[in-house]
Amino acid sequence: MKRLLLSLGAGFVFGVGLLISGMTQPAKVVNFLDVLGAWDPSLGFVMVGAIGVHFLAYLLVPRLAKPFWAKSWDLPPKKGIDAPLILGAVLFGAGWGLGGYCPGPALTSVVAGAPPTVLFTASMLAGIGGYALWERFWANREVPGMAGGAL
Amino acid sequence: MSPEFTPVLSTVGGALIGLSASALLLFESRIAGISGIVGGLFTPLKGDTAWRVAFLAGLALAGLGGWWFAPQTVAVTIDRSPWMLIAGGLMVGVGTRLGSGCTSGHGVCGLSRRSTRSLASVITFMAVGAIVAVTVGQLYRGAR
Fold first, then answer.
1. What is the pLDDT of residues B39-69, one digit of tens each?
2. Domain enclosing residue B100, as ranges
3. What are the residue ranges spanned by the domains of chain A?
4. pLDDT (tens digit, 9 = 90+) per residue, A79-99?
5. Nearest CB neighbour to B99, from listed A92, A126, A148
């Protein structure tokens, strides 16, 4: 239960951070990316604030034998740069510049029900779901039907 | 420069995002990457779903609070056609999964752990995002 509350609280604080920083307003995001328009550097300050804090947490990781609650450290392996990484970032960047939303702000502000936010977020979830389906049924066909189900 | 520039609020908000990511990391060894948290719901593993739902519920609660107490924080003031929103949403959905992360997973978490992969991703999506936003901006301004 306490673990779920931590997740809920982390999501809430994350969302409040997005709201306070202005990142749930696509206008501020687009005005950061559109450097030839009325440029708004706020997004850069959000990144500095977030990385400034989170970087300190990563300094603690090697000094802690294990996380406070989980059994062991389980962080993504550091791999090289590959084509899916870059192709994915190109697609993501293009969609971000078009709509002014990345996933966090979209999911935070969709509850306000503004039609553009709802349309963007529904399409984004369709993209995430569609990718998961594609991965399950086509990309990993050598592992028949086991992309997550039976564990 | 835009008159909407909010250096202090944006840094404070960013610090809260960093705090949230740090709690997930230090307590649970989890990465606060939103696209990854959502993506994991579509390929569910036993015991790995509830925390994702709880995190997203927290995001939604914050959004409801913003809507209730300060509706301007969730207002959409840019002009985008429905087709741009649909195409944009699909590209963000597919792109973040294919590229294993978004602004939070690669931007905040990846850069904080000095991952070269994340740096490559951030440079790419920022550059492409800027090209698209500048192009749309120029076309829209030209059309007016």
1. 999 988 988 999 999 999 999 999 999 999 9
2. 7-143
3. 2-139
4. 899 999 999 999 999 999 999
5. A92
| Structure tokens that stand for A19 in this block | 């709201």
Task: Tell me the residues of chain A between 22 and 61 that have a Cβ less than 8 Å away from chain B.
Answer: 22-28, 30-31, 33-43, 45-58, 60-61
Complex prediction ipTM? 0.96
Q: Tell me, yes or no, if A2 comes closer than 8 A to chain B by beta carbon.
A: no
Number of domains in chain B: 1
Contacts of A76 in chain B (CB under 8 A): 31, 100
